[in-house]
Q: What sequence folds into this?
């Protein structure tokens, strides 16, 4: 069984994210940031669960593998097929993913920026979009989590000004992120119950 503290954290932060429900720019930002705080806690728990199961090894690491945890480990834990199927089965998240692809394809938003000049890397953006549309579920699942991580990097470390362009991308990305959080939490809860029943 998941700890009471973890269950409470999940409910509190999910409810907090859901309380930002207007199209006001600051609400849209606050919703994404709040969801990402929760996602950070979720993927940390997923990482430690995989370590305990012997599926990954963090020995000799000097710090937490944030990028891998938020992307590779989440896909490994949920399963690429399950992740993609659940996003495409839900009309809201399916539509959100289509919206993200359109914004990238039309050059409205750039996910991948040059680390020095902050200029858009258009070809990298198009490669990401192609992966988001890929029939290969492994490639598509990784593109989804990498897209969310790129948005996190751009909004947490990049330009903090609120713009309507960022508004257009944060709405669909937050919808997808919320679903991803629910999928990971649900599996953590199921796995914790299974372990408890075995013991």
A:
């Amino acid at each position: 069984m998941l700890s009471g503290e973890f269950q409470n954290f999940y409910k509190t932060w999910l409810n907090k994210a859901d309380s930002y429900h207007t199209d006001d720019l600051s609400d849209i930002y606050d919703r994404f940031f709040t969801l990402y705080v929760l996602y950070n806690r979720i993927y940390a728990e997923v990482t430690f669960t995989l370590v305990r199961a012997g599926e990954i090894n963090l020995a000799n690491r000097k710090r937490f593998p944030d990028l891998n945890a938020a992307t590779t480990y989440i896909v490994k834990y949920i399963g690429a097929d399950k992740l993609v199927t659940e996003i495409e089965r839900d009309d809201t998240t399916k539509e959100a993913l289509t919206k993200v692809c359109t914004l990238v394809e039309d050059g409205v938003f750039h996910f991948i920026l040059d680390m020095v000049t902050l200029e858009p890397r258009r070809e990298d953006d198009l490669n990401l979009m192609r992966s988001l549309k890929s029939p290969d579920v492994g490639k598509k699942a990784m593109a989804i989590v990498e897209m969310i991580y790129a948005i996190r990097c751009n909004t947490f470390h990049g330009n903090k000004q609120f713009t309507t362009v960022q508004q257009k991308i944060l709405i669909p990305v937050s919808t997808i992120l919320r679903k991803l959080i629910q999928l990971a939490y649900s599996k953590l809860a199921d796995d914790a119950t299974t372990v408890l029943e075995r013991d």
